Amino acid sequence: MSLWQRYRRRFAGLLVILVPLLMMSSKAGAGVGGAGFPGGVGLGLMGSLQTILYTPIAATSGLFSGWFAGDAAVEATELNAEISRLREEKSRLIGVLQENERLRKMVGFKARRPELELIPGRVIARDTTPYFRVVTLHVTTDVPLAPRMAVISAEGVVGQVNRVFADYVEVILVSDPRHRVDAITQRTRAQAVVEGLGHEKDYRAKLSYLSEKDEVREGDVVVTSGMGGVFPPELVLGTVASVERSQRGLFQEATIAPSVDASRLDEVFIVVGAK
Amino acid sequence: MPVWVAVIVGVALCLFETLLLQLLNIGDFALQLWLPLTLWLAMRKDWASSAFALAFLFFPIEWCAGGRLGLVSFGLLLPFALVRLSGLSVGAASFMTHAMMGAVAAVLHGLSMVLMLVVFDPESAIIPAILWSLWKAAVAGAVITPIFLRGMVRLEDWFLPRGRMSGARGR
After folding, report:
1. Residue A38: which pLDDT band, with cuts at 50, 70 and 90?
2. Which residue of B29, B46, B63 is the best one to mutate when testing the A interface, meaning the one whose CB has the most A CBs within 10 A?
3. CA-to-CA distance for B47 and A252, rounded, in angstroms?
4. Pairing between strand A267-274 and A116-126?
5. Residue A247: phi, psi to the nearest 5?
6. Are B27 and B35 in contact (CB under 8 A)?
7. Among A105-109, B17-21, B121-125, whose mean pLDDT is lowest?
8. How far is residue B32's CA from residue B73's CA, in Å, rounded to a whole number?
């Protein structure tokens, strides 16, 4: 019996335990924009494959969504080739119209905030756990991108760049538990920190370290304060959904419904600078 | 079925899930397809090749999970070890057993991650996020595990028809 055959099982057991431990020791992904060499390579590798697969799968899912969106009465009748063709065409046109509207909004946003240097990106993939809120972008640009850059859309703040590899950018969304951003309420200018919840009503975040003296109401708009230099000021983060006293007694806490519908993200901007 | 096929299937499933969640706008209903894949690997006859495959699959799993590197993989060790020790087999267990196994594995996976964080990063904001979302993971595990395992049995039959030899134990 060779040495390999003799120790194969032990080596396999050791490897399966060591790999996660070594990964964890790198501390990559513990916060936004941390160490990330192994993750960066993986992002590039998986991003390339995701881009290749994106178009055919997008076509198929468009067909399905068009099918489900169709009139039930018509679906009950025989599904002949003509109806299938028209449905497919309809879903494609709806997709084009929706994309047109989104792009119009983005162009409008760019015109409203001319001081921001923005690079467009397209969301191609999402994380595969219910615990984190992460998306992968495909970005084509010569401008160097870096971790911690702000990611926004026409509706408001989306999140922050976590890792960059070639044309692929991993973004941690505002609702991820690792995401924090300095914020103020637009009405009273009360300062606080918006932290991702990563649970409860899917994509919500919470407003922490909000002084008890500050008056905050449901419906108040929360915007970025501009402190820290990552996010430009006055970008909408969301609206206050509920307010509760903190258990510690010094601060109150509020839950925020983000202005950006993170479940329907398609096109976003990366803020690479401000004039 | 050769273990390299399982590795390719695992990588393909990871990629497919990331794209599908985005394209169908259901990012919050992650199925964690790598969890039933881990269970299937644990139920294979050749434990060493399964462990090698899992160690390799940890990388794409982590890249698609988007969390703290190593956390999701570490969480998979406990379900993998327990299923291995239990001696369960793909072919012998019922649909219901597989569903329960999927739910329990998802909970154990989440709790292992929490334990790891409590020990090494007790202030981490990920801990409450995991605990809050455990039920979602359990439901997804219960739904997808029996379907996935049946799919893998079919795939295995395709490679090695029943009656000859099987990678799964206890047939």
Report:
1. low
2. B63
3. 53
4. antiparallel
5. -65, -25
6. no
7. A105-109
8. 12
Where is pLDDT greater, at A62 or A214? A214
Q: Which residues, listed in sequence order, are joined to residue B138 by a DSSP beta bridge?
A: none
How close is the nearest chain A Cα to the Cα of B61, in Å?
A: 8
Predicted confidence at residue B164, as pLDDT, reads 46
Q: What are phi and psi of B116, to 5 degrees?
A: -60, -45
State yes or no: pLDDT of A73 exceeds 80: no
Question: Shortest CB distance from B51 goes to which of A13, A61, A129?
Answer: A13
Q: How confident is the model at residue A72 (pLDDT cuts 50, 70, 90)?
A: low
pLDDT of residue B171: 40
Across B124-163, b (16+ Cβ under 10 Å) vs e yields bbbbebbebbbebbbbbbbebbbebbeebbeebeeeeeee
Percent helix / strand / coil, chain B, rounded to 5: 75, 0, 25
Residue A151 to residue A162: CA distance in whole angstroms: 10
Cα A184 vs. chain centroid, distance in angstroms? 21
Three-state secondary structure call for residue B81: helix
CB contact (8 A) between residue B74 and residue A24: yes
pLDDT at A79: 66
What average pLDDT does the segment B47-71 reach?
87
Answer whether residue B100 shows pLDDT above 70.
Answer: yes
Contact map slice: A 239-258 vs B, CB within 8 A:
none
B77, A20: Cβ pair inside 8 Å?
yes
Structural contact between residues B30 and A130, judged by C-beta atoms closer than 8 angstroms: yes
pLDDT exceeds 80 at position A226: yes
A105-145: per-residue pLDDT in tens?
A: 777 777 777 778 889 898 888 888 888 888 889 998 888 88
Res A155 pLDDT > 50: yes
